[in-house]
Structures are given as C-alpha cells and as structure tokens.
Specification:
Layout lengths: L1 E2 H4 E5 L8 E7 L5 E2 L2 E2 L5 E2 L2 H7 L10 E4 L7 E3 L6 E2 L4 E6 L6 H9 L1 H9 L2 E2 L4 E2 L9 E2 L4 H40 L3 H10 L5 H15 L11 H4 L6 E4 L3 E4 L3 E4 H4 E3 L10 E5 L15 E4 L4 E4 L3 E4 L10 E3 L8 E4 L3 E6 L5 H9 L1 H9 L19 E4 L4 H40 L4 H16 L1
Parallel strand pairs: 3-9, 18-23
Antiparallel strand pairs: 1-13, 2-10, 3-6, 4-5, 7-8, 7-10, 11-12, 14-15, 16-25, 17-24, 18-19, 20-23, 21-22, 21-24
Helix pairs in contact: 5-10, 5-12, 5-13, 6-7, 12-13
Length: 460
C-alpha cells in the first residue's frame, strides 16, 4: 500500500476569488468537476494580470488530477491539454510522478470506492462545510500497482469512462436545449418579437435592441440567425406587447403571477411512519444537471415527501448557492419518496408540467432571488416559503403553449433519465471492476469481456 505523497505532489489553489471577466484564462471551479471529467462551461474567466497572480503557487498542466477539498468532496478530474487556467477556491491538484503512476490511473484510483471511503473517514466536519486536510492528504493510503499493470487497468476502464462521460455530455446538451427554449419563450419572448416585427407592430424600448439583432441576422441570412418557429406554433403567440404593472412589457394577454400561484410549493403527499420508501439525501443531489445519484430505500421517519415529476431545490446555504437541484425521476406512478428536510419540493399546477418547473428552478434570475431572500444565522440561512410570493413569472393566455412546451421538452427529460440509468449501470460496473482489478482478484480478459458486454447492452 502506498501513500498519495509517494506518487504525487499536492497543491492547493487561492483562498480568494479574482474579478471575473467574459474572456481570458479559466478560473477553475469545483462545480466543473462532474463525474470524473472537467466541464469548463462551469468555470469563469480572469485577466492575464490576475492569472499571473493566481498561478504563483502552481499552474495546472496536462495530466494533473484536479480535486475538491471542500464541500464537493470526492470529485476529481484530469486537467486536459492546451488549457490555460488557474485553480479556483476549494480546489487542489495532484501532480503525479509519471515514473511511478500513470495520470489516468491516479484519477481512477482517486475515484475508486476504496479511496472514496478513505476520504469519508478523514473528512473534517465543520459548522458550514466539510473538508479534507491538504496537509494530511499526502499520508492518505492509496493502492498503486506496477506501471505495467496500471496501463492494462487504464485500457480496460477507459472504455467505461468514455461512455459515462459521453452520457454526461448528452444530458448537459439536452438540459441546455430545454433551458434555451424556456428562456426564449417565457423570458425573452422571442416568438412574440418575431410576430410583432412581421405584423409591423411597435416593439417596446426595453426589447428594441434584441428585436433589431434578430431582424439584422435574418436580413443578412446569417448562419447564426435564430431559427423561426413553424407557422402553427407562432400562431399560439400574440403579435404585440402590453405593459404589466409588475414585470413591465409582456406579451399581450399574458398575466404576471407569483411563483406560489403557478407552482405548488411542498405539496402534500401521504407516507406513513415506518413505511419502506425510496430516500434521497442532499449529498445525492447534483450541483449541475438534475439527475439524482445514490437513491436508497429505508423506513420513513420524516422529511420532505415527493412524487415522480417533482423538482427538488436545496433551501439551505451553501447547497443552494452551489446549485443543488434535482428531478424526481426514480419513482413509479403514485409512488411517494422522501428526502432531506432541507428540500423545497416544487410541482407545477394545471398545464404547467415538470419541464417548465425544472427550467424555472435552474433559471439564474429565480435562483438569485431565492439566494437574496434567504434568512437565518450565518452558515444556516434558508429560503422562506414567502419568497415564492415575491417572484413573478408571466403566464401565456393560450394554455396550449404550456402543453406544447411540456411536449417538446418532456422528451429531453425522458432521454436524460434513460442516460442516467445507463450511467448508473456503468458506474456500478466500474466500481465493481476497479478494486478487483487492483487486487488481482479479476483477470484482465474477464474484465474486458464484462465491459464489452455492458457497452453492447447499453447501446442496444
């Protein structure tokens, strides 16, 4: 048995945050560590001047293993090539000694069930966050076999990780597509702008710049021109705007309503004490995406109750700020599950379906409102239900629009659920194979056959 310090150097990042800008080197975020991969879309940018300041201690380079040492413990990813970046807050890196360990193997070892258990056992539980000691990390035990064995293990596991990574990317794309349509229809009112332009109706001043951009791109027949909706869909939108006393200019006939009138907050559900039911804790909820990982079954003893299609929003700091939001897609129809008391359960009313609620829960303006309205002592602040009375959304006069949005984006969420199930199967296989490969309990031909069979089954 080796120690981390035997095969790698440990570095940590800055303990502050520089000014963020639109372009420049990446300021890596722990929220970018997703499923063993680095999602740079979750990281900000900083200036060249700040980059030089924040890399005085270390500059991440290809093959480094990036990891979180606070809050999102256990997350890790390899630093990709040709990326100019500095470490963000709460992020550290392991610089492998390549004469002793293959970078990919070190990542797999870090993510393995055995090392994850070591992290749990050595976690320091603070008042507000959980963390691991970087000073003690070099002494954490890790199993590192000879390089020849490492290479063979990496070759076997790479196929699994590639498929898991691909599934994650597909789900991110599906989520972004749904979120983009939600914002286009219900926030920016693009189809109404288009109808107004075509009809020659006036465009309100706050929307004039967006309308001019759309009109210019169409006139130039630019490849970046926004796609026009089918005529039958555009007819569901009005062709003019009117002023709303709460939200300003909105599509004619649409009505502004507080979230509490359009969405059920913590709806009632029946579940008797002692009943065995599916349970999701806060740790199982992702900071990006909607897919819950690690659902278990246990007797109901209290907590938030929910049904299939509900959306869970973390109500407590720092979970809310970190982005924890999830879709309940693991229950059968009419089945009731439960989870942390720190969940806000959200369920659409009437034609308002799960896709709308899920997109609203991830909408930046809505989340900002929830965060700003939190109350309580430092480190234990929570959303109050009253905050849903003071955030307004605008509802279309033609309710068919909500039904159509649910139909169009519902497919995205169903596919996301299928990929989540695939990924869970592949992760279980990975977690089964890795310790057996390391110990020699499982021979490589058997592992290769198991991976090939699993991938064929998922692709069928």
């Amino acid at each position: 048995m080796n120690k981390i310090g035997d095969v790698a150097q440990v570095y940590d990042g800055p303990h502050a945050t520089p000014k963020k800008i639109e372009h420049g080197p990446y300021f890596l975020s722990i929220s970018s560590l997703v499923g063993g991969s680095l999602d740079l879309s979750k990281s900000a940018h900083l200036s060249q001047k700040d980059f030089e300041k924040w890399t005085k201690r270390v500059t991440p380079r290809e093959g480094d293993v990036l990891f979180s040492y606070e809050t999102r413990l256990g997350e890790a990813a390899l630093m990709p090539p040709k990326i100019k970046a500095c470490l963000g807050r709460r992020m550290g890196l392991l610089r492998p000694d390549v004469t002793k360990v293959i970078p990919e193997y070190l990542l797999y070892a870090y993510l393995s069930p055995g090392f994850q258990q070591v992290l749990k056992e050595r976690t320091i539980h603070g008042a507000t966050v959980e963390r691991i000691s970087l000073r003690e990390l070099p002494d954490f035990p890790v199993w590192i076999p000879p390089l020849t064995e490492q290479k063979k293990v990496v070759e076997v596991l790479q196929a699994l990780y590639s498929k898991i990574h691909l599934n994650t990317q597909i789900n991110q794309t599906l989520e972004q597509m749904a979120q983009a349509l939600f914002k286009s229809w219900f926030v920016d009112f693009d189809p109404v702008i288009d109808n107004a332009l075509e009809a020659g109706n006036p465009i309100p001043k706050p929307l004039a710049e967006r309308a001019a951009r759309r009109k210019a791109m169409w006139a130039e027949e630019s490849e970046k021109a926004p796609a026009r909706l089918p005529a039958e869909t555009r007819r569901l939108f009005p062709d003019r705007f009117e002023e709303d006393e709460v939200l300003g200019w909105v599509p004619k006939g649409w009505v502004s309503k507080p979230v509490s009138q359009t969405i059920e907050i913590n709806p009632k559900a029946k579940l008797s004490k002692g009943t065995i039911a599916k349970y999701a804790d806060m740790k199982s909820v992702p900071t990006t995406g909607y897919m819950i990982d690690g659902v278990i079954e246990k007797p109901y003893s209290g907590g938030a109750k929910f049904e299939s299609g509900d959306v869970l929003l973390a109500r407590i700091t720092p979970c809310l700020e970190n982005g924890k939001t999830a879709l309940v897609d693991f229950l059968d129809e009419n089945e009731v599950g439960f989870g942390s008391t720190e969940f806000v359960v959200m369920r659409g009313k009437g034609e308002l379906g799960t896709p709308y609620v899920a997109c609203l829960a991830r909408w930046e303006e809505f989340r900002k409102h929830c965060i700003q309205s939190m109350v309580g002592s430092s480190g234990r602040q929570r959303i109050q239900n009253a905050s849903f009375d003071s955030f307004y959304v605008v509802m279309p006069e033609n309710r068919q629009l909500l039904t159509l949005f649910d139909y169009m984006c519902g497919a995205n969420f169903r596919i996301m659920t299928e990929y989540r199930k695939q990924t869970e199967t592949l992760i279980k296989l990975r977690n089964t194979l890795l310790p057996k490969l390391l110990s020699g309990e499982l021979q490589l031909p058997e592992a290769e056959a198991a991976v090939e069979t699993a991938l064929e089954a998922e692709l069928a």
